[in-house]
Amino acid sequence: MTLDKIYHAAFVLKDIIRKTDVIAAPELNPDAEIILKTENLQVTGSFKVRGAAYKISQLSDEEKARGVIACSAGNHAQGVALAATKAGAKSLICLPDNAPISKIEATKKYGADVCLVPGVYDDAYNKALELRDSEGYTFVHPFNDEDVIAGQGTIGLEILEQVPDVDAVIVPVGGGGLISGVAYAIKALNPNVKVYGVQASGAPSMVKSVKEGKIKKLASVTTIADGIAVKEPGDLTFDLVSQYVDELVTVTDDEVAAAILALIEQQKLCAEGAGAVSVAAAMFNKVPVAGKKVVCLVSGGNIDVTILSRVIDRGLLKSGRTLSIQVNLVDKPGQLQGVANCIADAGGNVTYINHEKATEDMSITDAYLRITMETKNFEHIDEILTALSDAGFTYQQF
After folding, report:
1. What pLDDT, on a 0 to 100 scale, did the predictor assign at position 98?
2. From 5, 299, 318, 319, the catalytic residue
């Protein structure tokens, strides 16, 4: 990897990709100056088109004529499909069969043929290699390739140009291609800038590998951040991350959901799970951001709309914006009114209520009330629960 290669990639890509904006996001963490690098607004909705397009631009005419093959959880697929179509080459993409339908259809829309493979990313990867060997395709790796890494590194050049006084950059990490390119570019030009990587706690392959000093393969991965659900990092990315990244951390799915919700509400931006992990790390102080100017790289926006409502619900819970409780009552007149008054006086907004008579393990004169309500924050929840306790009601949260 060289800086010249990344600059060359920037030159090649200037008529293919979009130079994405940086946007101030002061409310995400009031203790820091948070700025978003909006690769979720990139062509194809993800940074992946940068590496794919640069890689394909460097192929020989013979390699292009054989067609290209790639494997992906979704975003690399769209990047390769678009880049191959623009270069006049055929493309076949192997995707996990659980990839969001929206990503599958988008990949087809950009001109690629799709092969669905049972399992996760790594299973699609093995299938792609099998077809490469049997059919003669040119393989475009999603992260463990110098040209792909150089293409992703163009984001680092843009960040330093757009935010020259940046103190730290937070980058999502799956296989490591994005952070390898970004960290190399930034450290080569300004080694004082800190570069932090973020993985989902359910898919910490790079975190474990760097911690143990050797590449580790996870037995399984599970996370809503499907774009970074990678069992094993590459050897190129492992070496670059080990050398140029200051620290790697993880965030939970609940924290990712809260970040997605915050981006929607506060910034009017839609990010997928993989794209929001950098914001989650800043919001929940997983890396030292207080008092610093920090760029969070929002790497993609191709969220599966079928799970968006569930993600928002989880984000509301994580942010103290909703409360569900069961209130134990004596079945007599006025009890429901008493509970309702406590909630109303404290400013809660009831969205669901269900009154049930006694069950087998309760007294025959007892009842219970299941209530879900909208709240402002965790302090507001404490205020409502205190009001119920002071009024003599007992409850359980669920």
Report:
1. 82
2. 299
